[in-house]
Amino acid sequence: MSTTIIEYSSTDAALALLSERYRGATYDVATASGMTEARKARGELRGYRVDLEKKRVEIKAPALDRCRAIDSEAKRITAALAALEDPIDAQIKTEENRKAEEKAAAERAETVRVEKIAARVADLERWPLALVGRTAAQITQAVSAFDKIAITEPDFGERTEEALALRGRVLVQLTEMHRAAVVAETERAELARLKAEQAERERTEQARVEAENERQRLAIEDMDRRAAEARQAIEVQERAARERIEIAELSARAERDRADKAALNARLAEQSRLDFERENIEAEKRAIEDIERETRRRQCAVLDARAILEKFLECYGKLPEFAKVTKAIEAYLCAVAEDRTAAGAKEAQAS
After folding, report:
1. Whether residue 45 sits in one domain with residue 161
2. What angle do CA 227, 316, 246 make, to 5 degrees?
3. Contact by Cβ (8 Å): 194, 149
4. CA neighbours closer than 13 Å in the CB half-sphere of residue 56
5. At 104, is the pLDDT very low, low, confident or very high (cuts 50, 70, 90)?
6. Domain assignment of residue 30, yes or no
7. Distance from the Cα of residue 87 to its chain's centroid
């Protein structure tokens, strides 16, 4: 839609001619003549534009005055109407605000009431969880306390029936928890009793094993002691035998040279003393080593000693010079045999 402004018609008519003349026109502004032509063209177009702006201001001035008058009168009338309307609007808004506040207060009160009811229902639901891990006696007290909780409409409102049903379910759960707690406590007591009996059996068995170990240790020590005594007896007999042999040899040579016999006897006596001391030292050392050896090795040592004694009996038992030694060895071997027989009988009875 086009609106024709009569006052602009002459300029609009000239616009067609100006468009034909200047649209796409270029000038050689680098030259004086070209710059003159360009400025002349710009001046002509600027003149039309300035005249058009003056005409616009001229023809618009009355319209602007009319618009200002329209706005001013409207503001005056609006202010007068507002002076009448505002008091009435204030009364209406005050009442509307009062009703809105009453509604909000009622909604808040209803929210609080619903939340309190929900909290009471949640409290009922939390009873089983709160009693997890408690004893049967504690659950019994809790059931008694829970059973005293009254479900009334003032406290639960529209959820009264739900609360009553929940109360019944919770009572069933608490009863089942009490039964399970009783069973668990009974099982724990039985387990504790069985553990105590097992501990007592283990303690008794440990005491028996320790007593048996002590008996075996004493038996081994006794065997070691007897073997040591037998070795000492053999050593004494051997030394006595060597001394008798040396004396017999000295007696045989006494007829030939009594002077040499005296010197020889002195030397033999000294050698005998030294041998005795050396053998005592070696015997003590062997005794210490025997004590430190393990039970199996000491038993082997005893067997070896008995074999030596038996070998001695086999080789020298018929010689009258060793009659006392032979008698001591036979007595010792008999004692060992009796001990072994008695030990075998005890083991047979025990098994």
Report:
1. no
2. 95
3. no
4. 7
5. very high
6. no
7. 75
| Same domain assignment for residues 119 and 88 | no
- 233 and 307 together in one domain: yes
CA distance 156 to 113: 9
Distance separating alpha carbons of residues 184 and 177, to the nearest angstrom: 10
Task: Say if 209 falls within a structural domain.
Answer: no
Host domain of residue 133: 113-195
Cα 152 from Cα 158, distance rounded (Å)? 10
Domain boundary among 97, 121, 138: 97
| CB distance 283 to 231 below 8 Å | yes
Q: Measure the CA–CA gap between 279 and 285, rounded to whole angstroms.
A: 10
- 52 closest CA partner among 15, 85, 84: 15
What total number of domains does the chain contain? 3
Q: What is the largest CA-CA distance in the chain?
A: 192
| Location of structure tokens 């050896």 | 293
Which tokens belong to 122? 């949640």
User: How high is the mean pLDDT of the chain?
Assistant: 82
The pTM (predicted TM-score) of the whole model is 0.34
Contacts 24+ apart (CB under 8 A), 334-341: 335/226, 336/223, 336/226, 336/306, 339/223
Question: Is 164:133 a contact under the CB 8 Å cutoff?
Answer: no
In a domain, 214, yes or no: no
- 308, amino acid identity: I
Distance CA 2, CA 55 (A): 19
9's tokens: 């018609």
For residue 350, give the amino acid letter: A
Same domain, 232 and 322: yes
Q: What is the DSSP string of 104-115?
A: HHHHHHHHHHHH
Q: Which two tokens stand for residue 335?
A: 């004692």
Residue 42: inside a domain, yes or no?
A: yes
The predicted-structure confidence for 246-298, as pLDDT tens digits, reads as follows 676 766 676 777 776 777 677 777 777 777 777 777 777 776 766 666 888 87
What Rg, from alpha-carbon coordinates, does the chain have? 68
Q: What region does 24 belong to: left with phi over 0, alpha with psi -120 to 50, or beta?
A: left
239-248 long-range contacts, CB within 8 A, separation 24+: 239/272, 239/275, 239/276, 239/279, 241/321, 241/322, 241/325, 242/272, 243/272, 244/321, 246/272
C-beta separation of 218 from 328 below 8 A: no
